[in-house]
Amino acid sequence: MTASDPKSPPMIDIRDVSKSFTLHNQGSATIPVMEAASLAVAPGECVGLVGASGAGKSTLMRLIYGNYLAASGQILIGGLDVARAEPREILELRRKTLGYVSQFLRVVPRVSTLDVVAEPLLSVDTPADQARDRAASLLAELNIPERLWALSPTTFSGGEQQRVNIARGFAYDYPAMLLDEPTASLDARNRATVLGLIEAAKARGAAIIGIFHDEAARTQVCDRFIDVSAFSPRRAA
Amino acid sequence: MHPLLQVNNIRKMYGHRIGCTDVSFDLFPGEVMGIVGESGSGKSTLLNCLAGHLETDGGEVIFDTRDRGPVDTLTMSEPERRMLGRTDWAFVHQHARDGLRMSVSAGGNIGERLMAVGGRHYGNIRASAIDWLDRVEIEENRVDDRPSAFSGGMQQRLQIARNLVTGPRLVFMDEPTGGLDVSVQARLLDLLRGLVREMGLSAIIVTHDLAVVRLLADRLMVMKSGHVVETGLTDQVLDDPQHAYTQLLVSSVLQV
């Protein structure tokens, strides 16, 4: 099977997903935010989410990652329905199948940058030296100076933290990936590196859903686009 | 995979008042579960029932023992339960002095648990005590000092070393970072996180501190008035809480 085989079963298959928030402490107001969202992504394909700010791009990403609880529908990633899975199944999915690169790094104090990046590999039992080698080459590619690798990224600049986060997100070869603004606020050189990483992930068969405000970036890596405004709940007349 | 611990319908009454009721869950090997709720929610009562420190008014706590497979620890013989408490189970108290022997040296506190499971060779016991002091970041030259000469954070780290030295499979923790300075808490959390991963421990952590569970727990159980009101993946419960009480709890945390 090649990455572009049109007959590949979708790696990510979202069917009829809806989401609402009930604010119990504000008069139990229920706010529907998404209705009948459906989309499928095949291995080797990159789908860009588009739509105005507030249309629900990030909400959809969080639903897919299991960070938000879907009200109804199915979210199948490699066959597991995230909308119904047990916590330990979702955690295993996040370790082995589904990666998420967000704009912000959640750092644990006192853990070195090299280990922050190597951690996804270590958690799937990659030998430590191999994991650190891979982490080191990613950090070098993303222009994080070697003298910083032994330090915790807590004190790094926003841009450096973002690049550490990207290195971490690409350390392990996830079969499915969610990318939330991976190129935002990067300089040209680092932006090109990140786009290269995304293209390499596609080439090895990763199914990717991304949010890119950078239009040149999205035309370069995305195979097609989904406008999430189509999933906005119809307002009751 | 079989659950390490199966908890079925645990119930504890204090007279007519509910301590906790209808609590059921399975805990799998390597899983860390946080129990959160305000004071009086029943979370500590539950933890003490599970660990056998409090008598329950009903339910089962089935532990997958090494030699006999799944056994209800609530109906186990007292010597058997005590043995479990020294080998496969560990309990980290909020106040280190409840879990340490304050009149015995640091090395003795760690060695004592090894001796209770048959360790006899003084040199080996002392060597593992020193090894464990190092793992919890206490200098080797403090091995003969009593814990009363230690700071609160060090005492808590010593308590953790004493508990983990026998390689338990299940650790109960009651507010392990409660009462410590914030900077000391961060260090302890980081240490616990490393040990839990490295040793593949299963753990049940009771705390009212949501930052603690965010960092340590795979999944959460939220309690209110003795009842479980919500369960789920930790980040999902904290970022998309479903129950009114959980929403209140999450929104009450001050943003720094």
What features would you describe in this structure?
The complex is a heterodimer of chains A (237) and B (256). The longest helix of chain A is centred in the last third of the chain and has 16 residues, at 188-203. By secondary structure, chain A is an alpha/beta fold. In chain A, strand 7 (176-180), helix 6 and strand 8 (207-211) form a beta-alpha-beta unit. The radius of gyration of chain A is 18 Å and the shape is globular. In chain A, 34% of the residues lie in helices and 24% in strands. Chain B has 256 residues and is α/β, with parallel strands linked by helices. In chain B, 38% of the residues lie in helices and 25% in strands. Chain B has a 6-stranded mixed beta sheet, sandwiched between helices. Chain B has a 4-stranded antiparallel beta sheet with strand order 2-1-4-5, covered by helices on one side. In chain B, helix 4 crosses helix 5 and helix 5 (122-135) packs across helix 6. The chains are: A alpha/beta (237), B alpha/beta (256). The interface between A and B is medium-sized, with 19 and 23 residues.
Main features:
heterodimer; A: alpha/beta; 5-stranded parallel β-sheet; 7 helices; 9 strands; 34% helix; globular; B: 256 residues; alpha/beta; 6-stranded mixed β-sheet; 10 helices; 10 strands; 38% helix; 25% strand
Describe the secondary-structure layout:
The complex is a heterodimer of chains A (237) and B (256).
Chain A: E1 12-23, E2 29-41, E3 46-50, H1 57-65, E4 72-77, E5 80-81, H2 87-96, E6 98-101, H3 113-122, H4 128-141, H5 158-171, E7 176-180, H6 188-203, E8 207-211, H7 215-221, E9 224-227
Parallel strand pairs in A: 3-8, 3-9, 6-7, 7-8
Antiparallel strand pairs in A: 1-2, 1-4, 4-5
Helix pairs in contact in A: 3-4, 3-5, 4-5
Chain B: E1 5-14, E2 17-27, E3 32-36, H1 43-50, E4 60-65, E5 69-72, H2 78-86, E6 89-92, H3 96-99, H4 106-116, H5 122-135, H6 152-164, E7 170-174, H7 182-199, E8 202-207, H8 210-216, E9 219-224, E10 227-233, H9 234-239, H10 244-251
Parallel strand pairs in B: 3-8, 3-9, 6-7, 7-8
Antiparallel strand pairs in B: 1-2, 1-4, 4-5, 9-10
